Amino acid sequence: MHIPFRLPLLTVLMMATSVHAWAVETPVKGGTLIYLEQQAHTNLYPPAGGFYPNGGILNQITDKLTWQNPKTLQVEPWIAESWTSNADKTEYTFKIRPGVTFSDGTPLDANAVAKNFDTYGLGNKAQRLPVSEVINNYDHSEVVDAQTVKFYFKKPSPGFLQGTATIGSGLVSLSTLQRNFDELGDARHIIGSGPFVVSDEKLGREVTLAKRKDYQWGPKNLTQQGPANLDGIKIIVTPEDSVRIGALLAGQAGFIRQVQAYDEKQATDQGFQIYAAPTRGVNDSLSFRPDNPLVADLRVRQALLHATNTKQIVDTLFSPNYPQATSVIARSAAGYTDLSDKLTFDPAKANQLLDDAGWKAGSDGIRAKEGQRLALTVYESLPQPQNKEVLQLVAQQWRQVGVALNVKAGDAGSRTLDNLDPLKTPLTVSEVGRADPDVVKSMFYPANRDALLQKGGSSDKVKSFRDDKLNDLLVSISAEVDAKKRLQLTGEAQRYLLDNAYVIPIFEEPQVFAGAPWLKGATFEAVGRPSFYGAWIAKQ
Amino acid sequence: MSHYLLQRAGQGLLVLWAAFTLSFVLLQVLPGDAVLIKFQNPDLGLSPAQIEEMRIAYGADSPLWQQYFHTLFAMLRGDFGYSVQAGVAVSELIASNLPDTLQLAVPAFALAVALAFVLAFVSRLPALRWLSNAIQSLPVLFISLPTFWLGIALIQLFSFQLRLIPVINPSPLQGLILPIITVAIPISAPLAQILLRSIDQVSAQPFVGVARAKGLSETGVLWRHVIGNALLPALNIAGLLLGELIAGALITETVFGRGGLGQLTQQAVNNQDIAVLQAVVMISALGFVLINLLVDLLMPWFDPRLKTVTGGAI
């Protein structure tokens, strides 16, 4: 099987090095890509596009105002040809590229863009459409002329420009915006202007995308221009890990998402490509809920941070595609500050801190104080890679310093309810991707994801915990106009989170995909969602 | 006979109503609800007040008895409500998944019955007596194979190694072969065992001795006198295996990435999509009632003695 392939490939390679023009292969048009997904998509309202399976669909069918170059993280033109903003970053004006249409034939003009951002920035109660987490301090829009739109903000919103490049800001037609939230679970209802359109859907199982033949408005800095190369993409939900990787290796699929670390070698050995796309956001971490008296004491949280051996976790469970965390956010994220000196594995220090805090070893080896055992509960997080194994290993490590960690699976109802109650879940698994410093605010600010559960945030069960110093810091990141100062504030926030041992960062989470050797030109946006606009199937 | 039928149908309706009430109560005591699970998603970042508004919009705050009668009467009219998670009517979900389940379950059941018969019959054929022990132990092997493992093993062998049948994007017929085998094998095992035991019991009856004394061959005795009489207990158990069939289908659907009621149920359980679960419970209960009714009606046909009892004074 392998030998007849290898020779011509080698010849091509040699020719490619000798004749420069050969280095760029000409894309082949046509063909349908079979893409295997682990989970079915949920609601496809673009601000809910953060969920991996949703992003995989939305990234093919919607365009954004701007395009973030995944290499340089610079924001470049796409549907907006150009833009300006005032010095305060409270006003942004975008010039819209002419001639862009949604797949239902309606124009993507200034009016459509204004309606999109009014909905994402403010939400819509009547249709139950929630506010987008990537847009901060939004006030209103103004349609200046058919191709010019202006946005006004209540406070500076320096993250807005990057926010227009994210999955959550995919532009949809007015007919889509008129639908209720619950109708947007049906992919056929999402009318975008992207290179592909949803042509068919079997709910919970399969989404079929077809290319738009009249597509002429890809990001202007891409080599790919005009319509996509592929005729279509068939996204098939295949929950079983071994079936996805097996089907890829057996030639029944061209691209799969969520390759487990232990399957990576099998794929590369057979000449298949592993793509580990970084999500450039808050690392895969454990976040404490200090409202719970067991972890209210800083010394206890610090002890658990030093009792966690993250190196052992990445070495035992993962591959080099999952780097050990060295801060709250990933190395490739904007504003990253190396804080690995605060994240040392030091069981002696952990024991000392727990002793100091008054937790004495009990008869069963678990520390106790005033008759209460230091036993904590955490719920497994299904979207995170091998999360159950990670938590079980952490539980073993904490056991060494006399702390019990109970890892629960639980049904969705208990998990959702308990995760809102700091007394039931003193810690939670957190991770979020976004290539902008605003990501730190997204994760920890009470009005956003509220990972630490603060009073006045997402849970009404919190009695007192609130850290206003942290919150001020987070707000200032989202409103700081000076780019340099903003990165510096981001560094401060990371340091503050670790000094208070609010989080235990474990590893930088990639989205790992695998592709067949004949699939060329698959790319990934800045936080790891695949894009098949320029993808093509080479002759086999 | 019609009196008997009416009585059985009445009992069936009672069972359906009990299933509805029980499932309604059980589903209500679960912590959380679909609206909460859907909107508490951190990707959306909603405040508790906003989530409360959603719940009111979905009617999650009306009193339980009101919800009970509302759901019951709606179901009687054939309205199964709305799936909060999928964002479509439950009837639409059922309509798109039920055919898949039937396509899998009916042939799988037929195959299981055929397998059980072949096993039982072959192991009792006088010519194959030397193989009888080996064949008899097959059901025990079949019953101990986890459906999940069996499915994966069949895919690995027939789809990935031998590349005979694609598991991704198969034609409708190709897509059914391996799942049918996966569901059928564990179901055939208890059937085969019951059938074997029943054959042995019937063979010990005096009338079989008479048939033998009349000079009928062993195979003839087995075929003409024993099998027919040995069917009753197997038929009875076949009705009960429906539950097994649905459970097996759930795992099979997940492994093969197929649609169907099993996969629908699993997702609904995950998201506590109560309207969907309630509909699935009712459909399964209806299936049970109908199959058992069918079994009851078929019994007298196999055993004429039952006719006099059922047609009698009750």
From TrEMBL, chain A:
Pfam families: SBP_bac_5 (PF00496). The keyword DNA damage does not apply. The keyword ATP-binding does not apply. One of its GO terms (molecular function) is peptide transmembrane transporter activity. InterPro entries: ABC_transptr_sub-bd_KPN01854, Peptide/Ni-bd, SBP_5, SBP_5_dom. CDD domains: PBP2_NikA_DppA_OppA_like_15. GO terms for biological process: peptide transport. One of its GO terms (cellular component) is outer membrane-bounded periplasmic space. Keywords: Signal. Residues 1-23 form the signal peptide. Residues 74-438 form the Solute-binding protein family domain. PANTHER family: PERIPLASMIC BINDING COMPONENT OF ABC TRANSPORTER. This is Peptide/nickel transport system substrate-binding protein. It comes from Kosakonia oryzae.
From TrEMBL, chain B:
CDD domains: TM_PBP2 (cd06261). Keywords: Cell inner membrane, Cell membrane, Membrane, Transmembrane, Transmembrane helix, Transport. It is a multi-pass membrane protein. GO terms for cellular component: plasma membrane. It is found in: Cell inner membrane; Cell membrane. The keyword RNA-binding does not apply. The chain crosses the membrane at residues 12-30, 102-122, 134-156, 176-196, 230-251, 274-295. InterPro entries: MetI-like (IPR000515), MetI-like_sf (IPR035906). Residues 98-299 form the ABC transmembrane type-1 domain. GO terms for biological process: transmembrane transport. Belongs to the binding-protein-dependent transport system permease family. OppBC subfamily. This is ABC transporter permease.
